[in-house]
Specification:
single chain, 279 residues, alpha+beta, Glycolipid transfer protein, GLTP, 47% helix, 10% strand, ceramide 1-phosphate binding, GLTP_sf, ceramide 1-phosphate transfer activity, Glycolipid transfer protein domain-containing protein, Glycolipid_transfer_prot_dom
Length: 279
């Protein structure tokens, strides 16, 4: 695999004005894949971008700056930390019989989205993926809350109808939601265990340990690039910390949420549904 601008195909560093997503703008990565490099002459490159190619496919990632109103950035510190709502939801994630409840699990995942927001462009793809899978599962749950009260009932009905392996199934949605949360848990653990690591290194290491083996070349290349856009670690920790103990909350979230993810994997593996790769 080769990385670089189309002209030389050598790794080069391109500089452009960029401010932290925590300050005045957000850079949204927009990946586009082309089968033929001859289409590139149609693109008027007036925005920051990357090209990645493996010799046949070309990945074009454009970083679109979106201004953020000044007043929206300077908000008062929150009570607790940005993890507090998720931790509160996890207190009710299981029934008295010990089964994972659909609504509470999905709500806990949803409460992590504000954490992802603080990463800016580095997590735009992750947030989109997580949000889409939550919506997919919520839509089916909402169609019959009593029938789909338990998380795995969303999968069991698809196993019975032999639709579990469909790319649009709830099974597929739960699998990729679980994998994305694996990545985030690994990232949060890196923040606790490696205080000297910049955020980009913590992100890349977590991605390599979790999601990378399930992704094809285009997805993997896209993630590798956008991970470099992670904000300054010190600013990030200040923003997510609020008035609470951020390290304690991160550790509590990881130790509480990890067993749920492992339970998801074990359930899916029982039916041969835990090893599906990206199509």
């Amino acid at each position: 695999m080769m990385v670089g601008p189309m002209q030389s195909r050598k790794l080069e560093t391109r500089q452009w004005p960029r401010e932290s997503p925590l300050e005045s703008q957000i850079l949204i990565p927009t990946p586009l894949a082309f089968r033929s490099q001859s289409l590139l002459f149609l693109l008027q490159l007036t925005l920051p971008c990357f090209f990645l190619t493996d010799g046949s496919d070309l990945l074009f990632i454009c970083l679109i700056p979106i201004p953020v109103p000044v007043g929206a950035v300077q908000s008062p510190k929150m009570e607790g930390t940005v993890f507090t709502p998720a931790l509160q939801e996890l207190e009710h994630v299981k029934s008295e019989q010990g089964e994972i409840l659909s609504k509470s699990f999905l709500d806990a995942c949803k409460h992590i989205l504000p954490v992802i927001d603080k990463f800016g462009a580095a997590m735009a793809l992750v947030k989109s993926d997580i949000g889409g899978n939550i919506t997919r599962l919520e839509t089916v749950y909402s169609s019959n809350p009593s029938r789909f009260n338990y998380l795995y009932s969303l999968v069991q009905v698809e196993i019975e109808t032999k639709t579990a392996k469909s790319s649009s199934s709830c099974t597929n949605g739960l699998l990729w939601l679980t994998r994305a949360m694996d990545f985030l848990v690994a990232l949060f653990q890196n923040l606790i265990e490696h205080e000297d690591w910049p955020l980009s290194q913590a992100c890349t290491d977590s991605y390599n340990k979790t999601l990378k083996k399930w992704h094809g070349w285009l997805a993997s290349s896209s993630f590798t690039v956008v991970m470099k856009l992670a904000p300054d670690r010190k600013k990030f920790m200040e923003v997510v910390g609020g008035k609470g103990n951020i390290n304690a909350d991160i550790e509590k979230f990881c130790t509480t949420f990890s067993p749920l993810l492992e339970e998801n994997h074990k359930f899916l593996a029982r039916f041969g549904l835990d090893d599906m790769k990206a199509s």
